[in-house]
Design a protein that fits this description.
The chain is of the alpha+beta class and 292 residues long. It has helices at residues 7-20, 28-93, 99-106, 108-111, 116-122, 196-199, 221-230, 235-238, 243-279, and strands at 125-132, 139-146, 156-163, 169-173.
């Protein structure tokens, strides 16, 4: 295999060659010229390599773009196939009282936004739906369906995320028609509910403030949580066990264990007393004086 020698090695070889032929060694000036030639050749090869890498990278980018288009088509296809199952699931969920409020309370990120009155209002929430637009990249909408309630007049509250004319993320939502004195977004403070110790938020911002916040549609955390985490499988959060109940059960188990330990200790004490009695028993005199 052809092997490229270093400039330094070639110089040594040339010196040895000319010495062997009784010729004059290559001067340092000549060596610099040789070195310059090799450097120019190396830089040229590097530049050519960079140009080839750029060409290959363009091909990779083209394939990535093509893959994105194919993935989008597949996602659109299966999004349509999932719709009948989402509908069936919504019908079944409607048979379970307080399904959605329980799901939200059990979700760590959503529960951080829920205060006592928010939770009360969400008891009237009967259905949640997430609709992705046909061109999935262009956005989605979340619909919240409510029964008649003492807080607002709306039957449906929606928030939509989409790309505006300039291609930037934006959002819009339903204007909440609050009943007199019931605007939860204007409360100054809120008493933490019974789950407050679990949420570690004494005065959480109202969940309903989210409908009026359009400051950063491209990074709407709550919208993404509902669409990507809760909506695909809300049952997993509905079935999360209540931590208070688990702690209560744990306390009962501890009490039972302590009770068993007490019984064992009492048993050990009784055995000890019996041993003491046996040890303290008077030995008959005949043992020492067998003739008596």
């Amino acid at each position: 295999m052809y092997r490229t020698e270093s400039v330094f090695t070639l110089f040594i070889y040339s010196q040895q060659y000319f010495l062997h032929r009784n010729a004059h060694p290559i001067s340092s000036l000549s060596f610099n010229k040789i070195k310059t030639v090799f450097n120019l050749s190396s830089e040229k090869e590097q530049q050519e390599a960079i140009e080839h890498i750029d060409e290959v990278q363009n091909e990779i980018d083209r394939l990535n773009e093509q893959a994105s288009e194919e993935i989008l088509k597949v996602e659109q296809k299966y999004n349509k196939l999932r719709q009948p199952f989402f509908q069936k699931r919504s019908e079944l969920i409607a048979k379970i009282p307080n399904f959605w409020v329980t799901t939200f309370v059990n979700h760590p990120q959503v529960s951080a936004l829920l205060g006592e009155e928010d939770e009360e209002a969400l008891h009237y929430l009967t259905r949640v739906e997430v609709t992705e637009f046909e061109d999935i990249k262009s956005g989605y909408r979340i619909d919240f369906y409510f029964d008649e309630n003492p807080y607002f007049e709306n039957k449906i509250l929606s928030k939509e995320f989409h790309l505006n004319e300039s291609g930037d993320p934006s959002s819009k939502s339903t204007e909440i028609k609050w009943k007199a004195g019931k605007d939860l977004t204007k409360r100054a403070s809120q008493t933490p509910n019974k789950a407050g110790k679990k949420r570690q938020h004494e005065e959480p911002e109202s969940f309903f403030t989210w409908f009026t916040d359009h400051s950063d549609a491209g990074a709407d955390e709550l919208g993404e949580v509902v669409k990507d985490d809760i909506w695909p499988n809300p049952l997993q959060y509905y079935l999360v066990p209540d931590m208070d109940d688990e702690e209560g059960e744990g306390d009962d188990d501890d009490d039972d264990e302590e009770g068993l330990e007490d019984i064992d200790e009492e048993g050990d004490e009784d055995e000890g007393e019996e041993d003491d009695e046996e040890d303290g028993e008077v030995t008959p005199i005949k043992h020492f004086f067998p003739l008596l």
